[in-house]
Design a protein that fits this description.
Four copies of one chain form a homotetramer. Chain A is an alpha/beta fold. Chain A is built from 13 helices and 13 strands. In chain A, about 65% of the residues are buried. Chains in contact: A-B, A-C, A-D, B-C, B-D, C-D. Chains A and D meet through strand 7, strand 8, strand 9, strand 10 and strand 12 of A and strand 7, strand 8, strand 9, strand 10 and strand 12 of D.
Chain lengths: ~350, ~350, ~350, ~350
């Protein structure tokens, strides 16, 4: 059994990791940390799991976590993970970090978007945990930077096409839409029910910090510097993310060729589903799952491709992918503990 | 392996049964019938299950179902099941009917609320499938009438108290609130998003057909005729049901004694969870599950008990309980296939 | 023109008062106070009103308000209004207080539910602002305690029947359901979109502070002490409140007689609408308005009456009634500024 | 008083026209037609307006309408208006058609997207009713084709920039998001609450029939043929529409110059509000109103402009603009009857 600890277990991503680990046949939950609920049973924070998760939350104690766990999930705000990770790794733990702290190999990129980095050495070693793209690196990694939700939804459809040289790299625009859980569980006016219901709006227009993360991966896969326009929006729903991506093909290419390229790239990957023509992806179809549903349309009149991808921002966009990363890092089938049948509604 | 067929598989209850059976380790899905989707793969109706359920829907053919299946779930409108059940039973199938057709032992009660009954003989044999109450009868039943969602939510907290003689039987009022999926998947103005959002209202006030169903069970357990006031309401949410039940205690009784009575009755039953004092049940905590969360408050000033129960109307209120009934009828642990860890949101 | 000031203008009730006053033909908005938005234009807090309300919010300064305004609406937390009201009245202002501070004539009742009262003298003078019931007292009042939202929805259907002696006064149960705006605009986990969507639950079961307020009015109208059971619930919608009220008739009475009693009581009152038989009130029908829609059903089998009433908790339940009170206090027709045609959706 | 008739008054657009006309000081409602509710009072279909609109719905009778009304609003499915309009005009009525039948001057464009046109002569005369752009033509028109909701939201921010030659006309992409009421009031699976809640998806990707309508206007204003990519999405909310529009500037241009261009174009128009920098438009801010809120961001890194516009799809996107057109056609100030103060929530 893998002994797993979840730091920051009472946020939405942390709680979802705990849900998934509770049903994972190879894992036992060794510890849950929570500043707000330290000393209280986890199900006080999430009563849905009463009778299912009996762990009592504790204060963060890195030494204790290092001894108690084989893997630690860090579901904490940026900046804290870079302080914790070196110690945890020294204790022999593997680390899966859900913040941005270990997503960038180049510290300058991180520091431009976030803050000074205090564990730069580890950046060279850490692997960007986009499971379907960096599978082999993840298998042997000690530390993984779990991708942001927006980058996951935008990169999964784009990477195969960029790798295959099918896109005009100056032409990429991603218009993404996220459910409210993406903003976290901390109360604020932004997530107040009455401000969200009947509201749809863009935010951080062209300045969101997930933008450099996407460009880093696209540039790596293209072998040259790529920039793109990215606009996130807030949708009045709890979970789910849809990205609509616009790009010009680099040359005349049929929609079938585009679909084939994506299909070939993910042919043996269980969590990517290509939707039939005429049936665009829908966040409802992936709610509570680790799936990424992808659709492709060619706007011939305007010589533009339109890619759509739907994920659950808390699932494949955070906790699901984190558990998938754990599976890869521990040599398990990547679907272990992630194969619940999706709900119909 | 149990070979299970689902008739009416593309309504919400049917689809949820299919979801649960797909993950059930002792079941293979032998057939799905659907008038609307006959000839099409099931995931055309519910794309969330693409890659997980590969059955093609078929027209209803009772002979074929009778041969192909060990158990048939009937998720069909009232009146059709009573025509199908006798033939299915003769083929050696067990039958779990989600309509009202086999819920009433007394045909007069059924006929007063619904229509003439054409399989009255079977009524004597059929068992009311409220799993926590009629467990032993269910284990040996060939045919089970799966309870309505409202009766499930109202009876689970009430039955222990009625059995124990703790309630004034003239005083019971149940004010229930249901998510929209209770109205089924067929389009109508009632379930139009724009008519539901920002709408809360009562309907079928004191004349809902689940009322006689509740009174039948309460009368049976009380050993005398019991009537009660029942008012259902529609809540702007997809899944979930909360019943708030008001009753006078038959004599002075402490809230602890009431809680103890309920707790004792369900002490070894995995799907009933008694909520701690001061933390009333919430539909969000049981969404997508087979749980029934119960809360108890005593309004001493007015000498009234207030019982609250939360279920998922599609889960414990329909499909979950149907699968639980199947488990009991086939000698399996009742949690088999029903033990997914609940979502945090 | 009436010069009106709104203290606490950037909460939901305050902002709705400002919306109504902006369209009121006899009012000019003299001042808006807001701790959080002091120094900023009001439409920074509520951009919907950009171009329509150009007032800049200011810090609370009672002397300035007293000079600048003929009437001050206090949309502030309990305890603050009792400190402000005496000074405002001395300045010659009229005061309409939306907190509980001036709802109780008997300080003991207030103090049992809230805290020590520091302006007890004013309690003798203040009028409970349930416009359809205490019309004449309101016309001549200097200070009005605007009713709570729950009491407004519960009392409007009950008062005529209690006055007429039609109810068994031991038998009253009110099961009320409120939209989320009732919890105010301050962020908290309770109003987080992800905790509200798909959630329905009771809270403060039988201990809500609006309970004594209702009992105070019922007792006054009945001429004897009345208590009742009251359970509020939270509905996943922004605005709206529905109360379902159960009571035994004091003697055999037809449903028509009950309807007639209510109809007669409100025959000349524009904001109470009696719904036709079979068409229960719906919060969607009163959204954004000052209406109270009432429905009546008789559950003959159980000798119980079921009353339903729908209001907008921010409208008739708070701001709308506050403006209606102002109209009465200033000798205007009570519909002035409140007669917008309701939305269809 | 203008005598106005509304044909198709019990759909969402028709009902909103009736709401607006009921509060319009220069209008009396002469007739409402409704196939479904003929013979019944209008408030049977929309109980929110009980006590406010007392008209009884009638069957469509063009002769009667022609005599009874000075202006007829046609809120009917495509194809019916082109059969009715000639007769209504002959009777001396003005006609405001909310279908696509009179939006295209060139019948070939209409017929490519819809069906054969049977009143081609009238197309030459009819005016495209985008009030802020074709103001003068509208003032003297007998018949107006009221714009689609998507074109209204996309064209209002784009037209000033296209006219000023500021955009690369090959580069335009509009990613639009609509509330559910855009799909109309007829029940279907698409608008079923349980299929909409927690669902976000694109539909009619790059093939929506509003696309040629937008291109027609852009081409007219640019003086050359313009095409654009257009992808509509469905948002889980009742009312509201947000369009995010991406385009390359034709030459280096500051974001201030872009804002100034839009501001100048609409400087004296009351229903267009330019949002301050950093505060993108939000559908909640325009709910129930005739406003169009516009935001502008420059993505310098990618040499792209991002325009955002929020409208209420039922308001400015349909009924509000229809009433605004009536005001212009009858020489009234364009805000008459449209100046309700917007709600705060």
């Amino acid at each position: 059994m893998i002994r797993a600890a979840v730091a920051g277990g009472t946020g939405y991503a942390g709680a979802e990791i705990i849900r998934l680990l509770s049903g994972h046949p190879q894992v036992q939950i060794a510890a849950i940390t929570s500043r707000q609920f330290a000393g209280q049973p986890f199900d006080r924070a999430f009563p849905s799991m009463a009778g299912r998760v009996s762990v009592v939350c504790e204060e963060m104690n890195p030494e204790r976590l290092g001894r108690a766990a084989d893997v630690v999930f860090l579901a904490l705000p940026h900046k804290i993970p870079m302080a914790l990770a070196p110690g945890l790794l020294s204790s022999g733990c593997k680390v899966i970090d859900l913040s941005a702290d270990f997503r960038f190999r180049d510290p300058a990129l991180y520091e431009a978007a976030y803050q000074p980095h205090t564990a730069k050495d580890l950046l060279r070693e850490s692997v960007y945990g986009l499971c379907e793209v960096y599978t082999e690196e993840i298998r042997t990694a000690r530390i993984v930077g779990n991708p942001g939700c927006y980058p996951t939804s935008v990169l999964l459809p784009l990477v195969p096409l960029v790798k295959a040289g099918l896109l005009d790299l100056e032409s990429i625009v991603a218009d993404s839409k996220s459910g409210v859980s993406g903003a976290g569980r901390s109360p604020s006016l932004t997530v107040h029910f009455c401000e969200v219901a009947e509201s749809f709006k863009a935010y951080k227009v062209a300045v969101h910090r997930h933008n450099p993360e996407m460009e880093m991966v696209l540039s790596r896969e293209a072998g040259r510097s790529v920039t793109m326009t990215f606009v996130p929006h807030l949708v009045p729903m709890s979970r789910g993310m849809l990205s609509t991506i616009y790009a010009r093909p680099s040359a005349a290419v049929s929609v079938e060729a585009v679909r084939d390229c994506i299909a070939a790239c993910y042919s043996d990957r269980p969590f990517v589903r290509l939707r039939p023509a005429g049936m665009p992806p829908d966040t409802l179809h992936v709610r509570g799952t680790n799936y990424c549903d992808i659709g492709v349309v060619s706007d011939e009149r305007n010589r533009r491709l339109i890619l759509m991808s739907a994920i659950d921002n808390v699932g494949k966009g955070a906790a699901g992918q984190a558990v998938q990363n754990m599976n890869l890092m521990f040599g398990l089938p990547e679907t272990t503990g992630l194969d619940q049948v999706p709900h119909a509604l």
